[in-house]
From TrEMBL:
Listed name of the protein: Sulfate transporter
Keyword Lipid biosynthesis included in the entry's annotation: no
SUPFAM superfamilies: SpoIIaa-like
The gene coding this protein: SLC26A1
Domain of life from the UniProt record: Eukaryota
Length: 705
């Protein structure tokens, strides 16, 4: 084979970077942060309220129709969902309407995404509801259904005839508080803390936390939570009055309780549920099938709510068949109240997963639709926006909000151009709050449960994607299944923890046992690739090229060494042991031979042993090695020393600057890096040439001697 022609690579000099002292950097940042000027104040305000930048440039004729249409449709969808998701959150329906109203207003001023719909979200409602039910139960209230009445605009609780009334005094306010009052106090305190956490994450630039929430993990988490949501709502479909299970295993325990009480099924609720689910599913299927022809989504939920409310009212399902209904929903706004600081220590830990999941969904959806529509968002500002969408509404009896995928997709598909659509949606909710809320008195809870369950179709359909996930990446499929199972069978919060920990463990496992390979040369080129993966590659005589496709650190050091020994076929320690045994054997044999000198004969035999190796150089291709730690550097030193004892030279090739800096800091290349040019090479081919040239020179020298 002709020798491959390459351009001689000169020695490259690294740039000298002068690193500033940490105190100098800190003082500079503080001076910039604390400096005050008119342009800085203006930039800060416009950054905090992006609306002042884009609203003056609003193209009225071009944008208004799309924003009006999408805002109206989202508002129509929001009303029944806001009432329904309160079942999940464990609070009265009016608070869902408050949450939807305030979240849309605040995000209009602070959000950077043009399409994201922020408001109530089933997953957030479930997580809030689990905390609310736990605290309500621990406070001594019963968790069965209650009838709510309004007195002077405030919700008051009247327990069923077989239940005793329980009042709780909130020390922070010195006031009597019933079950519903206490429930929304817990939800507001939880929401306030979640918002504070999100703002702190934005201030301290902790958005990197979301990188540990991989897409498969989030999908599995949402699917597992959907199972829990479906299970929690199943009792309403049958009209069963079963308290929500507290603790782990909600799905299993709840289904056991449902089947244990199946004989108490309310047939009015059951028949209503079957009809409503059939209509809702039919509407969704028609929407999916003819979405290209339909300019606007079918308002199936609104039609079902309106129809079911009218039938329930005129037939009197509640009075005749004891069907659970939504009850009185007051009009107007309840006076704002500071969230109870006395309750916050009880829910401080619960607010952490709420904050992380809420901002993770919001930021990911913002970036997804920004990329789709050709603009950019600021993730840090999105965290601030969703944080204040939780902090401010918590003073107005609201619970935790997040961006919602389904409503965001509807906004995008119905011509939304800016967040003006959010103002339109908030106006629709406001009309319901001011005028139409009392009309929902007779709306059955089973109808609301049907709306929630049918809305889970998208998350539950993720099961169909499991085979494709398995084909694309078995690791991602396993992460999805583990997270989904933990979220469904243990608890939603524990599912999040299990998903994050398991995802990180999967990455660690991948770096602990990465792919390793011996490389061969592509004929007549300077390129080298995996001998096992490609055909028509040439194995170089006397040179072994080894590639390790992971960082070299303390956790995979042993795997690196074992893989190297196996790939090249020589372990230095065993080779030295074999040689010493052979030397002893040769000396014994020489002692028995008459007329020969023992020493000479021994040297000849040892020489024969040393020439048994079929290579003289090992080249470590470090191109796929992003970094090495101190253990990795010591490993390099060890293999160079060990192989040198058996007559094999070890060279490094294609090291990035991070690896080189780590090696230099550990004096790997000797004093003043004097050995760098003969130990490290820019390409594999230059290392091969160096090894062959040195072997040729050594051979010529031995011949001359």
């Amino acid at each position: 084979m002709e020798e491959a022609k390459v351009t001689e690579v000169p020695h490259l000099e690294r740039r000298v970077r002068q690193r500033k002292e940490p105190m100098t950097v800190l003082k500079t940042k503080l001076s910039r942060s604390l400096s005050c000027s008119v342009p800085r104040v203006k930039n800060t305000l416009t950054g905090f309220f992006p609306v002042v930048l884009w609203l003056p440039k609003y193209k009225l004729k071009e944008y208004i129709w799309g924003d009006l249409m999408s805002g109206l449709i989202i508002g129509i969808i929001l009303v029944p969902q806001a009432i329904a998701y309160c079942l999940l959150a464990g609070v009265d329906p009016i608070y869902g309407l408050y949450t939807s109203f305030f979240a849309n207003i605040i995000y209009f001023f602070m959000g950077t995404s043009r399409h994201v719909s922020v408001g109530i979200f089933s997953l957030m409602s479930l997580m809030v509801g689990q905390v609310v039910d736990r605290e309500v139960y621990m406070a001594g209230f019963e968790l069965d259904d209650t009838k709510a009445a309004t007195v002077d605009g405030f919700l008051n609780v009247t327990e069923d005839s077989d239940s005793s009334a329980v009042n709780l005094t909130i020390g922070a306010f010195g006031m009597e508080c019933g079950k519903e009052c206490y429930a929304i106090s817990i939800a507001a305190a939880l929401t306030f803390l979640a918002g504070i956490y999100q703002v702190l994450m934005a201030v301290f630039r902790l958005g990197f936390v979301s990188v540990y929430l991989s897409a498969p993990m989030l999908d599995g988490f949402a699917t597992g939570a959907s199972f829990t949501i479906l299970t929690v709502q199943a009792k309403y479909l049958l009209g069963l009055k079963i308290p929500r299970h507290q603790g782990y295993g909600t799905v299993v325990v709840t289904w056991i309780n449902i089947f244990s009480n199946i004989q108490n099924t309310n047939y009015c609720d059951l028949i209503t549920s079957v009809i409503c689910i059939s209509v809702l599913v039919l509407g969704k299927e028609l929407q999916d099938r003819y979405k290209d022809r339909l300019k606007i989504p079918l308002p199936t939920e609104l039609v079902v709510v309106a129809g079911a409310t009218l039938v329930s009212h005129f037939v009197d399902f509640h009075g005749r068949y004891d069907s659970s209904v939504s009850g009185a929903i007051p009009t107007g706004f309840i006076p704002p109240k500071v969230p109870s600081f006395g309750l916050m220590p009880r829910v401080a830990f619960d607010a952490i997963p709420l904050a992380v999941i809420s901002f993770a969904f919001t930021v990911s959806l913002s970036e997804m639709f920004a990329k789709k529509n050709g603009y950019t968002v600021r993730p840090n500002q999105e965290m601030l926006a969703i944080g204040f969408c939780n902090i401010i509404p918590s003073f107005f009896h609201c619970f935790t909000t997040s961006a919602a995928l389904a409503k965001t997709m509807v906004k995008d598909s119905t011509g939304c151009q800016t967040q003006v659509s959010s103002i339109v949606s908030a106006f629709v909710v406001l009309l319901v709050l001011l005028f139409f809320a009392p009309f929902f008195y007779s709306l059955q809870k089973c109808v609301l449960a049907c709306i929630i369950i049918v809305s889970l179709r998208g998350a539950l359909r993720k099961f169909r994607d499991v085979p494709s996930k398995w084909r694309v990446s078995k690791m991602d499929a396993v992460v999805w299944m583990v997270t989904m199972s933990a979220s469904a069978l243990i608890s939603v919060e524990m599912g999040l923890v299990v998903g994050v920990v398991f995802s990180i463990l999967c990455i660690i496992v991948q770096t602990q046992k990465p792919k390793v390979s011996l490389l061969g040369q592509v004929h007549d080129t300077v390129y080298y690739e995996d001998l096992e993966e490609y055909e028509n590659l040439m194995s170089l005589p006397k040179v072994k090229i080894f590639r390790f496709q992971a960082p070299l650190y303390y956790a995979n050091k042993e795997f690196f060494l074992k893989s190297l020994y196996k790939a090249v076929g020589v372990e230095p320690f065993l080779e030295m042991t074999r040689r010493m045994e052979a030397e002893k054997k040769s000396e014994k044999m020489a002692a028995k031979e008459v007329g020969r000198d023992d020493k000479t004969n021994g040297e000849v035999n040892v020489g024969l042993v040393s020439r048994e190796l079929d290579f003289h150089t090992i080249i470590l291709d470090c191109s796929a090695m992003p970094f090495v730690d101190s253990t990795g550097m010591q490993t390099f030193k060890g293999i160079i020393k060990d192989y040198k004892e058996v007559g094999v030279t070890v060279l490094l090739a294609s090291c990035n600057t991070t690896v080189i800096d780590s090696l230099r800091q550990g004096s790997f290349f000797g004093k003043a890096d004097k050995d760098m040019e003969r130990l490290s090479f820019y390409t594999v081919h230059t290392a091969v040439q160096f090894a062959n040239d040195r072997a040729t020179s050594a051979f010529i020298g031995d011949t001359l001697v």
